[in-house]
Amino acid sequence: MGNLHDKTVKKLIKEKSSVRHSDGDGLYLMTPKRGDAYWMLRYTTPATKLRREYTIGKVDDWSLADARDEAAKLRLAIKREGVDPVQERKKVNQNPFKTLNDLYADYHQLRQRQIATHAKEKSLYEREVAWRIGKVGLDKIRPLDISEILRDIANGYGDKPPRPTISNDVMRMLKRIFDHGIKLDVTQFNPASPFRPKDAGGEEQAANDPMTETEVVEFFTKLRAIPAQFSRENYLACALLIATCTRKMELLAAPWHEFDLPNRVWHLPKNRTKKRRAIDIPLSDAALLWLEELKIRSCGSEWVFPARRISKKARTHMSARIP
């Protein structure tokens, strides 16, 4: 039991006979001549052995019992974990990331350097998350908030239909955002981490099964049978996509200077890949023959697949013709 009592506290605040009144174990009632009375904890930091004074809060907001409970928690954290409450409070006050929107802004800057689809991800955040919990403090967001967002998207809300795949996308994005906050030491908890696809839109199945070797042969056989409907350039594009295992626009927007034909390698730079990582792609004998044919067909163009019809935006490679 401490030295102070509720009636004593009221009396001391009224009299203001002195500034500091000890309750024991480092807890003090502070009654300054000017300003409100408040609770203060004195302690010694384990690491530096410095004497510190930590303001718990005003007496109007903290009862004697509440102040004792808080002081006990702080003393335990200081002893067991080496926590310095004064320094922890400074970190919180200096933290520029108050809300989820603040944290996302920093996360998005990082994603701009990491992936090519960062604009799509930003649109997803603004449509599905920002208006719900974007202005909420990081320490106030709980798993229940995440669950409500994921379920609404998966089941449909308002005039929006069920969108299970989008729900899974949002789940993964929120996990990455809060993980980013943990790395920056601006939050200690990821409220999205417990969730799995079954808690959002469900397990996803591949949109298309991979083609078998027999199906690939049949596909190209049929293409060769309709040259009037499917040009030679388009045929070679399909063949190279399979031979190099690249994305459509990585190939169709490729300039010739990326290809080192004598050394049989395609140097795909990081600014043209989804993951923002440079890739060296080996070229097979067949791929080299197709590229040599395309070199002739491109008629000196800087692009592997130059446009055969200039678009309104004046794109000068084959991607101008891709919807």
Automatic annotation (TrEMBL):
Molecular function GO labels: DNA binding
Keywords: DNA integration, DNA recombination, DNA-binding
Protein's UniProt keywords contain Transferase: no
Short name of any one Pfam family annotated for the protein: Phage_integrase
Residue stretches in coiled coil: none
GO terms classed as biological process: DNA integration; DNA recombination
Tyr recombinase domain boundaries: 206-323
InterPro entries the UniProt entry points to: DNA_brk_join_enz, Integrase-like_cat_sf, Integrase_catalytic, Integrase_DNA-bd_sf, Integrase_DNA_bind_dom, Integrase_recombinase_N, Phage_Integrase
PANTHER family, sorted: PROPHAGE INTEGRASE, PROPHAGE INTEGRASE INTS-RELATED
Family: Belongs to the 'phage' integrase family.
Protein name from the UniProt record: Phage integrase family protein
Classification of source organism: Bacteria, Pseudomonadati, Pseudomonadota, Gammaproteobacteria, Vibrionales
